[in-house]
Amino acid sequence: MTYRYEPDNYPGRMTLLPDSFCPADGTRVTAESLAWCCPVCRGPLDLDFAPTPAPLKSLGGRVNSLWRYAETLPLGAPTVSLGEGRTPLVELRDGICAKLDFVMPTLSFKDRGAVLLAELALRLGPRQVLADSSGNAGTSIAAYCARAGLPCTVYVPEGTSAQKLEQIDAHGARVQVVDGDREAAAQAARQAADEPGTFYASHAFNPYFLHGTKTCVHELWEDLGGRLPDVLVLPVGNGTLLLGAALAVAELFGAGLIDRRPALYAVQAAAVAPLAHAWEEGAEDLVGVTPMASTFAEGIAIPRPPRARQILRAVRDSGGRFLTVTEDRIRHAQLDLASQGLYVETTAATGWAAAREGLLESLPRARLRPNGGIAPVVVPLCGAGLKTGPART
């Protein structure tokens, strides 16, 4: 497909949308379709889109949001932006920096992907927008649908934090509480998503979401002067942040803007760790059935992530690995971050729980050497503590 850019307040305006395709069987879906999954295998879709990032020196003076990376985004000239992106990078200790992605309009990194889904929905003109979430994605979709003037329903599981439910409701979205766990909420939403005129704003299935989350790494690259850290430590449930990171790394490497790819370290709560289990088994997909269990890391408690194969492959190709953290480590990591002035939700603390206890010792020594002052390890902190409160024993 051919793309045409025209002058605007943003670096570019895309006048044509890319088609989607199924990475499993190659089935294609037209850009104008409301189909949320592959019509053959019902799997998630990817975009037929291979952008070239702009050189570092051309970014000066651009809009101070994720839309400054317009050449890499499948949509341009946004109408629903809330100024999302461009979050700070601060040092923690021992060569580890935190990317403060909870400093967002809805206090979650999910705003990066939600703004693209709302923008896409606005252009496709559905009768209704649906989403499913344990909280953060739902609050983001609700906020951006409110901004776009789109009716929105969010399916959430029992036990979703009251703070997140209040936030969804405040944005005017309809909350549909589903009896059961996170997977039950997803199944209920997917059944409703097949109704005519429905746009399923799924952060797990819709590829536009990944092209939003990838801007986290583009920001790191810009803020670190055209380089990336040796290691990214990322909490993983549905894998949207990790897969977005892999997209950005591939774009920057393919354009010759970096000469080395960072290792992606994926972190799961030990209580619900289907991907870590598959990794330990050397499998290319999920192995067996992972039962749902109670965990502080509710945002990544996903027993069957739809993009499991892609997540495992991305970690393997990067030279990274999977790590698991116990409930006690999550609780202590949240308290430790708070003692440093950073109050994050319990799910967001999982990356620091892994990084602060043993991660550096497991890395090759060459990866520990600072490169021109760049911290070897970056941990995104993805959600604010106000969303869940402190972890309680």
From TrEMBL:
Cofactor: pyridoxal 5'-phosphate
Keywords on record: Lyase, Pyridoxal phosphate
Span of domain Tryptophan synthase beta chain-like PALP: 80-382
Pfam families assigned: PALP (PF00291)
PANTHER family (UniProt xref): L-THREONINE DEHYDRATASE CATABOLIC TDCB, THREONINE DEHYDRATASE, MITOCHONDRIAL-RELATED
The protein's name: Pyridoxal-phosphate dependent enzyme
Organism: Streptomyces glomeratus
Lineage: Bacteria, Bacillati, Actinomycetota, Actinomycetes, Kitasatosporales
